[in-house]
Amino acid sequence: MVKPIIVGAHYGFRDWLAQRITAVVMAVYSILFAVSALATLDGTYESWRGLFSGGFMKFATFLFFMSLFYHAWIGVRDIFMDYIKPTGLRLTLHSVVALLLIGYAGWAAQILWRL
Q1: Which residues of 43-64 are buried (b: 16+ CB within 10 A; e: fewer)?
Q2: How far apart are CA 36 and CA 52, in angstroms?
Q3: CA 27 – CA 86 distance, rounded (Å)
Q4: What are the tens digits of pLDDT across the range 31-88?
């Protein structure tokens, strides 16, 4: 029996599909947000606050940000895996990006639910 040579991280189809799904989520939210903003906003603080006061818009916005951060993680991780050859540097960069994206997710949640 010939054992296949394992090369790379083997993310393949799963991450390809995840990037497409997150892109669709972001596109749908962008359209939803544009329609909502154009239809209901007059540019005042109160109208913006009113748009995000409902639970649905907060959840949709948070889902958008989570999709954005996961989409970014997959892309940046793959770029680092392809172009950064020293393992220690790649691990450091992965760690920094992961911590930043987790921090941004917490910050987005804090902003959305502070309203």
Answers
A1: eeeeeeeebbeeeebbebbbeb
A2: 10
A3: 36
A4: 999 998 888 868 788 888 888 888 899 999 999 999 999 999 999 999 999 999 999 9
The letter for the amino acid at 12 is G
Just give the CATH number of 14-114: 1.20.1300.10
Amino acid at 67: S
Domains in the chain: boundaries: 14-114
**Could you tell me if 112 and 59 are in contact, meaning their C-beta atoms sit under 8 angstroms apart?**
no
Q: Which two tokens stand for residue 102?
A: 């987790």
Q: How far is CA 109 from the centre of its chain?
A: 13
Q: What is the SS3 assignment for the chain?
A: CCCCCCCCCCCHHHHHHHHHHHHHHHHHHHHHHHHHHHHHCCCCHHHHHHHCCCHHHHHHHHHHHHHHHHHHHHHHHHHHHHHCCCHHHHHHHHHHHHHHHHHHHHHHHHHHHHC
d(CA 20, CA 98): 20
Find where tokens 């540019």 sit. Answer: 43
